[in-house]
Design a protein that fits this description.
13 helices; elongated; 79% helix; single chain
């Protein structure tokens, strides 16, 4: 390549400065386009036999272009094409009233309510357990191993047990799903906050003791500020796990509302496009929740004196 062609192909520093958003999001856009291309290729390959069998049953002549076009518009494909998923998602969001049973907004709101309540319960439980572990050597030795062991059993096995037991004592509706969600999300918060509360240097703790600081003052002035980065890192993990817990909790209940119920209905009737549209709604919901936690982290950081 000649120097003139290289200069033409390589963006100048001034061009990059004029388009900072392009520079920032170009790698993400490239990966998304690559994934979309792979997705379309996979949809063609996986749906090809279904479309070919349909043509042969109808004894209709077909060409390669007819087969490819059929894989892009199959009613019940093995793997729906991206445009089919986006179309079903758009129809589910904008094609019905937000309170309609077929609206993805309605189902997302049901799952979101269980997610937020479970996240709040899990966050409070996780922080409380971390405080007890940090301030008690006995609890650290006895309680922490059980907290770790609690996550070894798959939630798919525990969710039906929780639903049945909680239903037997009269707890139904939102609370059982929230408890399952809290059961999943308390663990990363507990582990993260234990690490955060023990992050201060031993010399800093010794200095607080020389100043005759009480345990409450050490917690407020030293341990909590040191634990803030660990807290928000744990919350970002916990909020997404909380959403997963709420969706999983909706599967054994046989409920008619929620993203989990939408996934279950799609699997019953072979509506793969509906399943993928519900998964897209869950992904967008998780991204939004993580974004809110990230925004809260930025605001707290600015309040604590971090650079904007």
């Amino acid at each position: 390549m000649t120097s003139s062609a290289l200069a033409f192909a390589t963006p100048s520093a001034g061009t990059l400065r004029r388009h900072p958003l392009l520079v920032r999001y170009a790698p993400i856009g490239t990966i998304v386009l690559a994934l979309m291309a792979i997705w379309y290729i996979a949809a063609v390959l996986m749906n090809l036999s279904l479309v070919r069998d349909a043509f042969e049953r109808e004894e209709t002549a077909y060409t390669i272009s007819d087969l490819i076009a059929g894989t892009m518009s199959a009613e019940r494909p093995l793997l729906p094409a991206p445009h089919q998923v986006i179309s079903a998602f758009t129809d589910g969001v904008f094609g019905y009233a937000p309170t309609a049973p077929r609206s993805l907004v309605y189902h997302s709101a049901v799952t979101l309510s269980a997610t937020l309540l479970g996240f709040a319960l899990g966050a409070m439980l996780g922080i409380a357990l971390a405080l007890m572990i940090v301030h008690s050597r006995v609890l650290e030795k006895s309680l922490l191993p059980w907290i770790i062991c609690s996550q070894m059993v798959p939630i798919l096995a525990l969710a039906p047990i929780f639903i049945v037991v909680l239903g037997a004592i009269g707890l139904q509706g939102l609370l059982p799903k929230s408890i399952i969600s809290a059961y999943l999300c308390f663990f990363p918060i507990t582990i993260g906050m234990v690490k955060g509360f023990t992050a201060p240097d031993p010399m800093q703790l010794d200095l607080m003791r020389t100043w005759s600081a009480t345990p409450r003052q050490v917690l407020a002035k030293l341990r909590w500020p040191s634990a803030v980065p660990y807290l928000f890192a744990s919350l970002k993990v916990a909020i997404s796990i909380s959403l997963i817990g709420a969706i999983v909790a909706e599967l054994p209940t046989g409920g008619e509302a929620g993203i989990g119920a939408r996934l279950l209905a799609g699997s019953y009737y072979g509506q793969t496009i509906q399943i993928w549209a519900a998964l897209l709604a869950a992904a967008i919901l998780a991204s939004g929740l993580i974004g809110l936690v990230d925004l809260a982290e930025r605001l707290v950081g600015l309040r604590m004196g971090a650079r904007p």
